[in-house]
Design brief:
Helix content: 25-40%
Largest sheet: 5 strands, mixed
Number of strands: 16
Number of helices: 15
Strand order of the largest sheet: 5-4-1-6-7
Length: about 400
């Protein structure tokens, strides 16, 4: 600068307000001046050889345990940073292959629990599960809120989504959900459902959430893009809003992974799927019990009344997300709207009236039977009263209340 403008180093130093030596150092290089702090090493350097030995023998040893073994007395932050740098050298590499999905091949299934209370009636509000299913090839997603995470309710939700799609992927992937295959083996209802549809339910390996990463990422997308700012009057309102949003937004946005929208790939995906059977597979909650005098059946934690004429006989109970129905032999003896809350007693007034009539008839019959026990009919039909035994004692002059004189009587 001083060469081009004729300024001396001292003049430049005065102009810029810096030391003359700083100006001299800057003029000696073509690079701008930069301060570099000299490396002083780290306290961890002294124990790094011990850390390496421990990681070589135990690659997954926690940093806190390593600190205890090497007698570390300083900040845990710098030790954890060094362990984080060294651990990959001993753990090994576990790469995963990229999965390529073919049309109609697979759909991933999962439960999402929206962190928002949903009104269910009776002054109650609960956090309810949402079943989500995402197809591998097209990324088409379907979802439905269900009453519980019991197997029958989950299968009912799956059937509703597949019914909306009009076909089923050949494989349905689940994690170790207890109601589907918590032990690593499909439950009987889940296996029956898959057999009826002619598809396969595949269980993910234990502790491997990435196995169904497609639907897991969709759950996160729901929570950040669908839920904020929305209110719901009940499960039905939630499902209406959710279904509309999925159809208009989620399934119509461009996905970089497939280079298209899910709707654009849906026709090819659906054409390779399995056609749905003409009848519904077994879904919903079922039970078979003998109806007691307390003419109620329990679904979840709620009690539903049943026609008391079925008391003492076996009844079949079926509960879908919408309806609770009870049958005795070939006759329907109760139908109720399914209550999604808990601890409620749902009573049909007709059942109470029937119970009152049956109870009156039973009491009248019991009174008549008691009357018959205290009287008897003569041959010509007129009633003859039953006499007490003391009447016959008086008639024959027998006095059982007299105590005989036992003096002089000996027994051998």
């Amino acid at each position: 600068m001083y060469k081009s403008e004729g300024l001396s180093q001292s003049a430049i130093a005065r102009e810029l307000g810096i030391a003359r030596n700083t100006v001299a150092s800057a003029l000696k290089t073509d690079m701008p001046p930069r301060y570099v702090r000299p490396l002083k090493g780290s306290l961890v350097d002294a124990v790094e050889p011990q850390i390496r030995l421990l990681l070589k023998e135990h690659p997954k040893m926690p940093a806190t345990v390593i600190a205890e073994r090497v007698g570390w007395q300083h900040s845990m932050t710098i030790l954890k940073e060094r362990v984080r740098e060294l651990r990959p050298l001993f753990v090994g590499v576990d790469p995963t292959d990229r999965v390529v999905y073919e049309p109609g091949q697979v759909a991933q299934c999962d439960l999402w629990f929206p962190p928002q209370l949903i009104p269910v009636g009776g002054g109650q509000a609960q956090i309810l599960p949402v079943l989500a299913m995402t197809c591998g090839y097209s990324r088409i997603t379907g979802g439905a809120m269900i009453p519980s995470r019991q197997g029958g309710d989950i299968l009912a939700g799956m059937w509703a989504i597949l019914g909306a799609w009009g076909a089923s992927p050949r494989s349905l992937v689940w994690d170790r959900e207890a109601a589907i295959g918590g032990t690593g083996k499909l439950t009987v209802p889940a296996a029956t459902f898959a057999g009826t549809l002619g598809v396969r339910i595949k269980l993910a390996p234990p502790r491997d959430p990435e196995f169904k990463g497609l639907v897991e990422r969709r759950n996160g997308f729901f929570e950040t893009s669908f839920l904020p700012g929305r209110t719901f009057t009940g499960p039905g309102d939630f499902n209406d809003q959710f279904t509309d949003w999925i159809d208009q937004k989620a399934n119509r946005r461009h996905l970089r992974a497939i280079g298209a929208t899910p709707r654009e790939r849906w026709d090819d995906d659906k054409s390779a799927m399995v056609a749905l059977p003409p009848f519904s597979p077994p879904v919903g909650l079922t039970n078979r019990i003998r109806l007691g005098r307390d003419y109620y059946v329990r679904i979840g934690s709620n009690d539903y009344s049943v026609d008391p004429s079925a008391v003492g006989r076996f009844v079949e109970v079926v509960a879908t997300p919408d309806v609770v129905a009870v049958a005795c032999e070939d006759r329907i003896v109760a139908t109720h709207a399914r209550y999604w809350g808990s601890g409620a007693t749902i009573t049909d007034p007709d059942h109470v009236a029937t119970a009152k009539e049956l109870r009156g008839s039973f009491n009248a019959a019991r009174a008549a039977a008691a009357a018959r026990k205290t009287s008897r009919a003569h041959g010509d039909g007129h009633v003859v009263a039953l006499r007490a035994l003391p009447d016959y004692d008086d008639l024959f002059g027998v006095d059982f209340h007299h105590t005989p004189d036992l003096q002089g009587v000996h027994t051998s």
